[in-house]
Amino acid sequence: MLPKDPKRQAAGKARAESLTPQTRRAIAKRASGLRWAKEFGLPQAIYGSKESPLKIGDLTVDCYVLEDGTRVLTQESFLTVLGRAAKAKGGHGVRTAVDSLPPFLAAANLKPLIDKEVSRSTAPIEFVTPAGARVFGYPAELLPEVCRVYLSARDEGVLLSSQEHIAMRADMLVRALASIGIVALVDEATGYQEVRDKKALSALLDKYLLQEFAKWAKRFPDTFYKEMFRLRGWTYPSISGGKPGVVGKYTMDIVYQRLAPGLVKELEARNPKEDTGRRKAAHHQWLTEDVGHPALSEHIHAVTGLMRAADDWDQFKRMLDRSFPVKGDQLQLKFDDM
């Protein structure tokens, strides 16, 4: 056995002493991750990190490329981008008893819309990140497929009220991803595909989604609905919860019927309900940016103030009728042609 080199020993000791506690923990975590990958046969991610996520509008998606070239999105990011809670109910990598589907596809109304190919690709993948963390993820290609399932449910009129926010998010994602491709985006974000302009694809996607998010921008702040629920004695829903169907009728009365003469009649003509009972767009999307939206925002702000001042629904309606009576039929506000 050869004697140890004193110089190399000294250099190694000096390096160890120069490391910060954070660096030591990172090195230990990477080593532990490599042991897990070897001991349990877990796939190893060779590209990607939490410092280089995929940006989709204002969302951050952690993505990686495995040794075999599989592109994956972490389970937490996958759920978040769909508008669901970041942590899966029942633990990491959980699958329900409904055909072994993940929770975001397990609803009975979605089952007839899921083909076998999509079902086979829903098994969560446990892998080790380059930083040494054990995480669960899903194939990147599954994201647009899941979006299409929700959009099909919407188109066929079987979407639940608790799923509407997911369908809205899915609509935006599919539009943005259609011409670009999720695989190319993941490759770019992780560095797997080196191109001259590394951020070209994500910049294009971001620009597109900023436009899409602008279309769906909240014109009705949460406080508007919170005050409405308070006055009606309802429990305000969580992010994933829906709203009673009568809320739409209340909004029509409180806002649109009092915003401008003839507004409701024109909106119904331009934005009628389809056979599914839904409209192609929200009413506020038909209002112009220069006149309609400012007037809408001002009215909502004033109405919300009346709600806050009222003790109950009847008192609020009396204050509303006095301050903003229902308008007539003479149209004044401008519309977009869309």
Automatic annotation (TrEMBL):
Q: Which InterPro entries match?
A: Phage_Mx8_p63_C (IPR018874)
What are the boundaries of the region Disordered? 1-24
Ranges for the Bacteriophage Mx8 p63 C-terminal domain?
204-296
Top-level division of the source organism's lineage:
Bacteria
Quote the protein name from its UniProt record.
Bacteriophage Mx8 p63 C-terminal domain-containing protein
